[in-house]
Design a protein that fits this description.
mainly alpha; 0% strand
């Protein structure tokens, strides 16, 4: 119970920090809402239904998954800030497991990403994107899984970074290529062989594809846009999630012990 209380307390701290940071709220919400609200309709108006594909719904599902995954991954950067401010050291001397601290951070940043998902879903409904009750209900656990997956990836990356400045320099280099390799706004069919390899090792790809599995699985009239089946995406996400959590947590804990 003590470990569980510690995990929940750390998660609550991250969520409360979001509510108090108006600048972060505006920045976190503005970009994905602009993509969904303007890019999707613009592509649909400019290109029509290329090959029968609804580009507005395609961009909507891609941005929804990308935003949640990337938000939780980038949010873990605050672990570096806590380390620089010696806040993490105060936590580490408390009688709780270091693994519980990392688990609390993953849970907290996953919760922080959920309001963004809700806002994007709201914009999608306003734009007239077909979202049946079954799709909305199934998207809740899927989006939660995507958020945890992103936070676990963030832990893995941060476990090899020593300062927040380095993290801010490296993360755009890691995230931007995945935006295109994951097929957020571009279909992944018929890629050149070298881009296909890079796409398949891009974790964000499977988060985006899983959300599209849910959407297109309940829209039989829509042209499918997924690159892989739902079981395949779940299997890859499961393996990557376990590896990211185990390796990232172990390396982060070891680095803290050596400070």
């Amino acid at each position: 119970m003590r470990e569980l209380s510690a995990i929940l307390a750390i998660a609550q701290r991250d969520f409360v920090k979001l509510l108090r940071d108006r600048a972060r709220i505006i920045s976190d919400f503005a970009f994905p809402l602009l993509l969904v609200g303007f890019l999707g309709p613009a592509l649909q108006a400019g290109f029509g239904s290329a090959g029968g594909l609804d580009l507005q719904a395609f961009v909507f599902t891609g941005v929804l998954a990308q935003t949640v995954w990337q938000s939780s991954a980038l949010g873990v950067v605050s672990l570096i800030a806590d380390r620089d401010e010696d806040f993490s050291q105060e936590i580490f001397v408390s009688p709780i497991s270091r693994y519980s601290i990392v688990a609390g951070k993953i849970l907290g940043e996953s919760l922080v990403a959920m309001p963004q998902a809700g806002a994007i879903l709201g914009v999608g409904l306003l734009l007239g994107i077909k979202l049946s009750p079954a799709v909305l209900l199934l998207l809740v656990p899927v989006i939660a899984l995507v958020a945890v997956f992103g936070a676990a990836f963030g832990i893995l990356i941060l476990s090899n970074i020593g300062s927040q400045r380095t993290a801010n320099q490296i993360f755009p280099f890691i995230m931007l290529p995945q935006f295109f390799l994951a097929g957020v706004i571009n279909p992944l069919h018929n890629l050149p062989w070298f881009l296909e390899i890079l796409s398949r090792i891009s974790p964000m790809r499977y988060a985006v594809d899983l959300v599209r599995n849910v959407y297109y699985g309940f829209e039989p009239s829509a042209v499918p846009a997924e690159a892989s089946t739902a079981p395949a995406n779940l299997a890859v996400i499961g393996v990557m999630l376990v590896v990211f959590v185990l390796v990232g947590t172990a390396r982060f804990v070891r680095s803290e012990r050596n400070r």
